[in-house]
Structure formats: C-alpha cells, structure tokens
C-alpha cells in the first residue's frame, strides 16, 4: 500500500476511534432514553468504521484523550447539540479525504454513507431546552448590548467619572433587565405552548441581560480612567457578540460572519451616536458633575 494512503487511513482510523469514545461518553451523560440509544448506536457505527480501517492498516489506534475530554466539557458547558455539531463539522472536512480513498478502496463508500447520515439523525433526535429558548437569550443579549453600550458611551463623555457611570449603568441595566423579562413573559404567555414556558422565557431573557450588564459595567468598577474603561467595555461587547454568534451558528447551522457583523455594527453604531450625544450634553448644555 502507498505510504501516503496508509497515513490517511491511520488518520481516519484514529478519528473514528476517538469519535467512538466521544459518543459513548455523551451517551452515558444523556438522560433522555431515546437520545441515549441513538448516541450508543452511532458510537457503535464509529467502532465498526475504525475496525474497517484497521483491516487495511493492520494497526491499532488509541483515541485522542484530549479530544474526548474536549467534547465532554463542551457538551457540559454549551450543550449536547453544540458539541455534536462542532464534531460533525470535523467529519464534513474529512469527507473530501473519503472521496479520494474510495477510489482506492471501493468498500469505503459504505463508511462514507454512514458518516453523511449521522448529522441528520442527530439533528432529528435532539431537543435541548436551551435551544428552544435561544430566541429569549438573543433578545436579552442584543438589547443589553445595544442599550447599555450606548448608555455607557454617552455617560462616559457627559460625566467622566467611572464610579458614577458604573452606578448609573447598573441601576439602568437592572431596571431594563426586569422590564425585558416582564415583556418577554407577557409576550410568550400570549402564545404559550407545551414546548415553551413563559416563566422560563422570562428567566432566560432577564438572565442574559443581567450577565451582559455585569460584563459591560465591570471595567468602570475596576478602572479610574473612564475612556479606558469604555474601550474595554466595547471590547467586551465584541467578545460577547463573537462568542454567542459562534454558538448559535454552530448549533443552528447559520452563517456566522453576516450575523456577527450585523450585531457588531448595530451595537457600536449606537455607542458612537450616544458618545456624540454625551459630547453635546457636556459642552453645549454645560453639564459638569
């Protein structure tokens, strides 16, 4: 066998062995019986695939322990859907390699069919609560980012005192969070279904808002220079947008950069306008605190 081909087969074999261990670990943690059975079946498929490659490499491969732990931790932090979708993206990248291998080993076509069917099975089986309420989380995050980033930018130039800006921002943020949670409760209550609870929608919206408020205000509590604090707040806002947009794009198979750009431009645009308003308030109206 060509050494280059054997190297590809060994890479495939180790990948399948690793994914077998990942799916087994996820199945052990899964509480839903139907989800657990599907994960166990796919883990078994991955084991068979690994054995198929082993017949051609005449070698044994150990799973990548770091990768197994990576996806176990990701499933705990970000949910089963996110972890699986991220892993399946890696399998999509490997499918080009499969096409080349099939030309040399026609039986490998059956393995390719199994790999292509995995993601559809997983999408159909998973029903995670956090994904059902992702709209409520987006509402809380986006409103907090737009409103509070803009408010802090305006207050920075108008007041120029970090502690005072933080106090006003905190009061504004907490009041807005409670208002948003109440609005989301009433909105969801009007069309509540078995799949979505009005109370949980309100909690997800309010919690997302409060967490965002805490991150955006922290620089003003820690730093005496309000302009430096504002810079860190803007950087924090961009990191929040980046992280959450990436999560949603993976879990929901949505385009990343377009959604990231929309949220970033909206948040920073409002902040820039508010900063200009703060300039007007301070120097035209003679506000000095």
Would you give an account of this structure?
The protein is 85% helix and 0% strand. It starts with a helix and ends in a 6-residue tail after the last helix. The chain has 2 domains: 3-127; 130-283, no CATH class. The mean pLDDT is 79. The longest helix has 28 residues, at 162-189. It contains 11 helices and no strands.
Sum this structure up briefly.
With 289 residues, this protein is mainly α. Helix content is 85%, strand content 0%.
Shape: elongated
- The CA-CA distance between the termini, in Å, is 79 Å
- Secondary structure: helix percent: over 70%
Elements, N to C (H/E): HHHHHHHHHHH
Unreliable spans: none
Strand content: under 5%
Rg for CA atoms: 25 Å
Helix/strand class: mainly alpha
Topology:
Layout: H1 3-29, H2 33-57, H3 65-78, H4 80-104, H5 108-125, H6 129-132, H7 134-159, H8 162-189, H9 198-222, H10 226-252, H11 256-283
Provide tags for this entry.
mainly alpha, 2 domains, 289 residues, single chain, 0% strand
